[in-house]
Specification:
The structure holds two protein chains of two kinds. By secondary structure, chain A is an alpha+beta fold. Chain A is about 20% helix and about 45% strand. In chain A, a hairpin with a 2-residue loop joins strand 1 (about 25-30) and strand 2 (about 35-40). In chain B, strand 4 (about 525-535) and strand 5 form a beta hairpin. The chains are: A alpha+beta, B alpha+beta. The interface of A and B includes residues 69 and 107 of A.
């Protein structure tokens, strides 16, 4: 609330206005040394790693499908998706189930992450939008960067990473 | 890319099927065809093959538009040519990158024969111009209608101003008007569709019980309701047509005229038109006002009025025979013989009704007004219909899904080692009670989405009736087991194949009355349409008492097509079933009714899509029997679970014909690759599932592994697996809606809670063939 008022007072800087629409609650998680955030409204639930059935003819980062209480949903490994080195799953490994926009409507998809950290509120002034030019392939998946207490959290655009990413890959 | 290809070939399959059942003047099927072509146009052209296909689709659509607009002949010959064009398009998809130029030239030839000018260069030119630079279109010569045809044609389906202004309803202002009450309109569409569907059934019943006033009332009522509501909603065209029909029927009800075949024919036609109009409004609601089509009803209204005028003036003064004659002018008639007594009886009863219930429209039925014995039976039948409610299909699917989960969870809990260890008699008793309740519940839930096949069968009655009039043959269609229930989702898919088979029976199976008499058969042919449950599935049989299949001709044709070798001595049963092979048709002459070159192979494909099977039994001189085996429901599949390495896959049981451990001597290779098994004299290609799916297998030697012989769309292959784990009924689920994987039809939850993949055999076999 205060964040929004401040933005208005600061004038109509485009960058700041874009950031204000990103302000809100994020679920943060870690992949290697990096911290990521995903909008809390996208998250359906967090589950521990369970047995994943591999699906042939899919890109390596799609680990397969799981049984989520009778529903079959695809699961992708974010480390593999971002070309990071693989890591054995352990007791901290989690699957974050997100609901994303795909061409045929909404779908639930699981993302394997190293560990889930916390839910944080991120204010607009803490968010920096990604540079608008010279985007690398990885950068288009990013909504912005949040600086909270010296730590940087990468805010992911899950609709792109998971939704369009999976559809395009298959 | 592969996904695209599957999409395209399934659209082409649909088109092949629709073309089979289309008849000149049958706008609803033509509309569906157009829809399919438009779907094809969506696929872009990146590769050369796709560009060709796109160009072909554009040309195909232009021809169809021409036929709809009346520029090209709306004739069976042209549909035949179009169906050949579809075959060429399928060829393009099948051959993939190495495109054979003769396919294109054949396609162009067929299109030219329809009267639409097209050359190979305009075909591709159309695509490039359309795809890359729309602005260039001004350069086009007027003589090349290829691409410019498209724009006006599109407009014509959508633009109400384009329509002939001759509709006596003058409802051209209706578009913006009636759209104001979307909710009401939605309700009207559902209600009207239901009412209109009942017309046919009742008319056919009336032919069995001529003059039954209850049935006449039932025919009258839908028109009355449609008239009332459409007037309220400002749907003037529908209102006018319904009103004119109602007037005519009112005369019948009040005994002023008889319900003779002239009236019946006209009422059927009007019913069809009304249904089309209602469907069109549904389109407008769902897609947008640009779908609105104006219907020209003036001819039908005039016919109704003419018929009414003759009926009225003659009804009171002239003898029945005269009425007969004057109606004979309007319609061709086959059933003249039974007419006079019918109309006399009709009048007597009809006037009786008029006396008891002078103005009520639906009362007679609802109250079961005392009537002559014929009617009693009728009222009894009506009373047995129980109260029902309509439920959203989405909710029903959710319920079925939840039910499936419940069954699996129950199994999981019971199998939990801790629970198993507890040897408590009370617990065991409770568990068995729980299982019983759950299985009851499962049955009830599953039965909820089953509907009687009667509705589909009723449409066949109408079809047989129309066909017999058209061909001059006498045909009786006898339904048995119409109350057999079928999965709601299957009803639509089974309709087209059934239509084609019934047509086939009338057209090729049953002879003309003269032919039949010559062979010592009664002049009227009988087609039996049977449905019953058997084992875990249902069976639909179509039996005719015609001439049966010409085994000699089939053998010749099979030999010329290279399907059998001249020396082969196949038993008749196998030989007859060759008619389901692609492109196999024994009809010498293409008739207006059926036999458009693409024949039973399309039926087989459609049935196999429902995971069913179809076969034919024939007795020369005595008739032909088509048997369709279908699973009871699409939601559950009976499958064999196989293991490959650490993975488990499910193979649909219906597709399996054998599994074996091969002997070394039956294993063959060509150039060290192309592996096959020699089974009963035929070579069956081997598919190493572990290689296809990239998993680590237990066995790599084919003679140690197990071969599961499967068949799909007439092609066979041997799937190499490590082990057979068992047989299970599994609930089919999609893979989360976003994965379309070649070779995998879907997933299911296995007994241990893990997901198992269900194999798509058609996909596997075609991927191997490539």
């Amino acid at each position: 609330m205060t964040a929004q008022q401040e933005t208005v007072e600061m004038g109509l800087d485009g960058n700041e206005r874009g950031a204000s629409s990103l302000a809100g609650k994020y679920l943060t998680f870690s992949l290697g040394a990096e911290e990521y955030g995903v909008g809390i409204l996208k998250v359906r639930e967090i589950i521990g790693v369970m047995e994943i059935t591999a699906v042939p003819h899919t890109p390596p980062y799609i680990r397969g499908v799981i049984n989520l209480r009778g529903r079959v949903i695809p699961v992708l490994d974010l480390r593999l998706k971002f070309n990071m080195e693989t890591k054995e799953y352990d007791e901290r490994t989690c699957i974050i189930v997100v609901e994303v926009q795909v061409h045929s409507g909404m779908a639930q998809v699981g993302m394997v992450v190293d560990s889930v950290s916390e839910v944080v509120s991120i204010a607009a002034e803490e968010i920096e939008l990604p540079p608008s030019i010279g985007l690398s392939l990885e950068m288009v998946n990013i909504l912005g960067m949040a600086k909270i207490k010296e730590a940087v959290k990468i805010l992911l655009d899950v609709d792109r990473v998971v939704g369009k990413g999976v559809v395009a890959a298959v | 890319m592969l996904e695209d290809k599957n999409g395209i070939s399934s659209i082409l399959d649909t088109m092949a099927l629709k073309i089979l059942i289309v008849e000149p003047g049958d706008l609803s099927v033509v509309g569906e065809l157009l829809g399919s072509v438009e779907e094809l146009l969506v696929f872009g052209g990146e590769t050369e093959q796709q560009r060709w296909l796109h160009g072909m689709a554009v040309a195909f659509k232009a021809v169809m538009d021409g036929m709809i607009m009346g520029e090209l002949a709306d004739s069976a010959e042209n549909y035949e040519l179009l169906s050949k064009a579809v075959i060429q398009m399928q060829e393009v998809v099948r051959t993939g990158a190495n495109l054979d130029p003769t396919i294109i030239s054949t396609f162009v030839k067929h299109i030219n024969e329809t009267g639409y000018p097209l050359t190979v260069s305009t075909l591709l030119g159309a695509v490039e111009r359309e795809g890359t630079s729309p602005g260039v279109s001004s350069e086009e010569k007027p003589g090349e209608p290829g691409p410019d045809e498209l724009a006006p044609a599109l407009a014509s389906t959508g633009n109400p101003e384009d329509s002939p202004g001759g509709s006596s309803g003058g409802g051209s202002s209706g578009v913006p008007d009636f759209l104001q009450d979307r909710e009401l309109l939605g309700g009207f569409i559902d209600e009207a569709s239901e009412h209109l569907a009942s017309i046919e059934v009742n008319i056919l019943e009336l032919e069995q019980n001529p003059g039954n006033p209850d049935i006449i009332n039932n025919i009258f009522r839908p028109f009355h309701t449609v008239k009332g509501v459409s007037g309220f909603l400002n749907l003037t065209t529908i209102n006018n047509l319904a009103h004119a029909t109602e007037n005519l029927l009112d005369d019948v009800r009040s005994g002023k005229r008889s319900m003779d075949s002239g009236v019946i024919d006209l009422v059927l036609v009007v019913g069809d038109t009304l249904r089309e109009m209602v469907e069109n409004i549904r389109d407008v609601l769902e897609i947008g006002p640009e779908r609105y089509r104006e219907f020209d009803i003036s001819a039908q209204v005039a016919q109704l009025q003419a018929l009414r005028a003759t009926g009225e003036s003659l009804g009171s003064l002239t003898p029945v025979a005269m009425t007969e004659e004057s109606i004979g002018e309007n319609t061709e008639r086959n059933m003249q013989d039974d007419e006079p007594p019918k109309s006399l009886a009709d009048r007597a009863i009809a006037s009786e009704v008029a006396a008891t219930s002078p103005s009520s429209t639906s009362m007679a039925v609802a109250k079961g007004t005392p009537l002559p014995p014929v009617a009693d039976q009728q009222t009894v039948a009506r009373k047995t219909i129980e109260a029902s409610i309509k439920v959203d299909v989405g909710k029903l699917d959710a319920l079925i899904n939840a039910m499936g989960e419940l069954v699996i969870m129950q199994a999981l809990v019971r199998q939990n080692p801790l629970v198993v260890k507890m040897a408590d008699p009370k617990l065991a008793k409770d568990f068995s009670q729980l299982r019983r309740i759950i299985s009851d519940l499962q049955h009830t839930v599953m039965s909820m989405r089953m509907v009687p096949i009667k509705q589909t069968f009723d449409k066949m009655m109408r079809l047989a009736r129309d066909l017999s009039k058209k061909t001059g043959k006498k045909v009786d269609l006898v339904m048995e087991g119409a109350e057999t229930e079928i999965d709601r989702n299957m009803v639509d898919s089974i309709y087209d194949p059934l239509v084609h088979m019934v047509r086939n029976s009338v057209d090729h199976g049953i002879g003309t009355p003269e032919e039949r008499t010559k062979r010592g058969k009664p002049p009227t042919g009988v087609i039996h349409l049977r449905a019953y449950q058997k084992g875990g599935g249902m069976v639909i049989e179509i039996a005719d008492d015609g001439e049966g299949l010409n085994t000699v001709k089939i053998r010749e044709k099979a030999a010329t097509r290279g399907l059998i070798r001249p020396g082969d001595s196949l038993p008749d049963f196998q030989l007859n079933n060759l008619i389901f092979m692609p492109g196999f048709s024994t009809a010498d002459q293409v008739s207006d009714v059926s036999g458009r070159g693409v024949g039973m192979d399309v039926v087989k494909k459609a049935v196999e899509k429902l995971r069913g099977q179809v076969e034919v039994h024939s007795q020369p001189g005595a008739g032909c029997l088509f048997v369709i085996y279908l699973p009871l429901t699409l939601a559950i599949i009976d499958g064999i679970i196989v293991r490959v390495g650490s993975e488990r896959y499910i193979i649909p049981t219906t597709a399996i014909w054998k599994s074996l451990k091969p002997e070394p001597k039956s294993y063959n290779t060509v150039h060290g690759r192309g592996e096959s098994l020699l089974i009963r004299g035929s070579l069956v290609p081997i598919v190493r599932l572990y290689r296809l799916f990239d998993v680590e297998p237990t066995f790599t030697d084919p003679c140690e592994a197990i071969m599961v012989m499967v068949e799909s769309e007439g092609r066979r292959c041997a799937l190499m697996v490590d082990e057979l784990l068992g047989k299970e009924e599994v609930v089919i689920k999609n893979l989360g809606g976003m994965l379309a994987v070649p070779g995998v039809a879907g997933g299911t939850i296995l007994g241990d809670g893990r997901v198992g993949l269900i194999l798509d055999l058609a996909g596997i076999i075609s991927s191997v063939a490539e």
